Amino acid sequence: FLRPKRDFICWYLCVTHSLMYTYTAFSKSVGLPGFYTFTAMGLLDDIIIDYYDSKSQKKVPKQDCMNKALPQPYWVEGTKARQAKQKWFKRNIKIMMARMKQNSSDIHVLQWRHGCEAEKQPGNSSLQFTRGIDMYSYDGKDFISFDATNKVWVASSVVAEQTKRKWDNEELIHYTISYLQNNCIQWLSAFVKCRKKQLVQAAPPKVLMFAKNSKVKKNVVLTCLATGFLPKYIELKIKNEGRVLNGADRVVSTGPLPNGDDTFQRRDDIEIFRDDLATYTCEVSHSESNLHINSTWGKFDLIGWVSGGLLMLAVLMLAVLVLLVFLCKRRNCVFINIVFSRQQDSSEDVL
């Protein structure tokens, strides 16, 4: 499943957390390493926190805080639940193939994704439900999904209408809503608190500010890079004399991107004139890490790349001069005289 896009404004104004579970079942073995007939995983803010596959048939923690905070019975019962889901998927993928009139020679895939999203309330750590997700897909196409607002299942194809008629009953709808708005949020809150303790011991995020040459010679690009933060929502602002700049001012943001260690990074750039004398600052806030930085690009940052290049050129010219002097001493300045005479001849030609 593709994760539905969040509003861009949320990167700046709210702290959002999510707890999602994904299940994937194949009709038969794919025959590729790392692919199993059934896998299931839980994700907290898009980071895997638990995992199960048909080979190991065991639900295991993927984060230290999950392993330490949750007792062994949790994982035992979780394993039983995943094993039951594995059987459910095996049975239902056969039903889907029969309903679609498909043969067993091809590989088919049934997926389920469900969970909840919540926003952290200002002034406290409580989470308020904002959205629930419960959706199925078959062979990469949407099959059926739950509309929590209208309290109905929405069929994405004619074949799914039969499932919709079965699931559009009061008991199942009440259970689905209760899970998404209550049980899921309770687990989300518990997992966020668990991770919070882990973050206290982790290295704090880093903020790097620098300038580099633009493709346009008269311009430079200012960059503010925040990296190593978790969860992925962070507040990053580039300001000009205190005024927050945005896309209309040609600010380009990558948004949160994953690092290789389960943390995230974000990079914002703005291109300005090289001779711009205004004060540019970068303000970064990440509440989960208690990070707040408000720093200014200095003049060295703006011209450092240029002056560095001139310095290297000066050093190179000095080295050449020293070499010429050395050769002069060894060759009685014949080489130097030739160089000077050629320079004089050249200047006369120009005049």
Automatic annotation (TrEMBL):
GO CC field: external side of plasma membrane; extracellular space
Transmembrane annotation, as ranges: 302-327
Keyword Kinase: no
Keyword Oxidoreductase: no
Cross-referenced SMART domains: IGc1
Ig-like domain segment(s): 205-294
Listed PROSITE patterns: IG_LIKE (PS50835)
Name the record gives this protein: H-2 class I histocompatibility antigen, Q9 alpha chain-like
